[in-house]
């Protein structure tokens, strides 16, 4: 276990050094993404300026929800950037490289890439929480825990969807649809949805575990929200790893010679 | 013009060869329309009024169908052009008997038209199911020229950003910011009618409203006057952008250096 952690830390360090090789481009991506998120959030500022609240949800709630979702998305992009490309790697036979090395295949493949703009998403989430009106030092600790657990659910969801590639051949359209649905539902007020829709948002598209539930936990500690997040993270990570391992038995490639840089 | 029409037809035929691929990518309009319906249904119910700033729930949802069709189908040539500039493949088109920008316009418009058809059928079916038919069937007829002008404007801006690759390494940050400006000032997620007056005035004075708000509003409330005003406004912005694009292209072309190949 310790050797896996050391290995991951070494990978992340190498990824960061690689991303920062082109310093200006890196900074442009980070600050560009912060500006991008801030501009997108203006939509909600305009909406709540006109309509005040949606079934009890106000702008403050949106700041925290959007913040958790942005930081969780950013954390997955920074630490497990290949989570967005796993399906493509399976289709193109690019798992050969990872299979030939004495490290856990999924972990190694996911952590081998960092998306520089993810740093902007990650930082923006904290800025959003800071100006939400719910900020406190205890709240910040809860926010960090909420982001980690939301990122686990989001990352696991990406792996689950793309592991279907082992059976259906190509999952790029499905991935695009799943990611868009997940993010869209995560940053909309949960109070909009009826019971059946909420059930979907906790299971098939677990957007509630990436937005509303962790945001509620960051604002106020309750054992129920903590239990929901922990259970969600454990179940989805377990399902993702299980499905990937099951699919890996069906993996085929043309043994193409590839260079990983 | 004949050669560009031939390129357009060829690319359109490519689209028809892989309809499943385009259909898969277009499915994302469904969750978007569903979540918009939930948001505006609750908002209209909370306001206690059937009409807000001249729009009903039905016209708001149909407005959003057109806005989403424009956004999800618009030409995305920024990366294509910047890649061609960066990897030098622009040189292969420069010596052909057609203009680089004209070629990309024909190709991207063929993709746009094909995607728009599928997006409109899916998004329109969803809206019809949720709120009933469009407010006016005349809208379908008059919106077509406005849609073409909107995509031509989008093409100009995307190409301008792509051409920035002559001077900067990565243009993605510019693309994000442009997209978000088009979201906010174009009225993609919230019709400009619901904006505060000062922001609506700013948005109307900028080109982004001609890209989204103008055609979408024309669709839900068509009239001869609105039709002529919309087209005149779009024509003015087109002149400005086509002029800017030609200027930037000429400057970039003279700065181009291609090594070997």
Summarize the structure in words.
- The complex is a heterodimer of chains A (261) and B (261).
- In chain A, 71% of the residues lie in helices and 0% in strands.
- With 261 residues, chain A is mainly alpha-helical.
- In chain A, helix 8 packs antiparallel against helix 10 and helix 8 packs parallel to helix 13 (223-248).
- The model of chain B has no long low-confidence stretch (mean pLDDT 89).
- With 261 residues, chain B is mainly α.
- Chain B has one domain.
- Chain B starts with a helix and ends in a 6-residue tail after the last helix.
- The A-B interface holds A 22, 24-25, 28-29, 31-33, 35-36, 39-40, 42-43, 46-47, 49-51, 53-55, 117, 173-174, 176-177, 180-181, 184-185, 188-189, 191-193, 197 and B 21, 24-25, 27-28, 31-32, 35, 38-39, 42-43, 46-47, 169-170, 172-174, 176-177, 179-181, 183-184, 189-190, 194-196, 199.
Characteristics:
A: 261 residues; mainly alpha; 0% strand; B: mainly alpha; 13 helices; globular
Q: What is the rounded Rg of chain B? A: 19 Å
Q: What is the SS-derived class of chain B? A: mainly alpha
**How much helical structure, as a percent, in the residues of chain A?**
over 70%
Average of the residue pLDDT scores of chain A: 91
The share of residues in extended strands of chain A comes to under 5%
Poorly predicted ranges of chain B (pLDDT <50, ≥5 residues)? Answer: none
Order of helices and strands of chain B: HHHEEHHHHHHHHHH
Give the helix tally of chain A.
13
Binned, the helix content of chain B reads over 70%
Most extensive chain interface and residues per partner: A-B, 37 and 32 residues
How many domains in all of chain B?
1
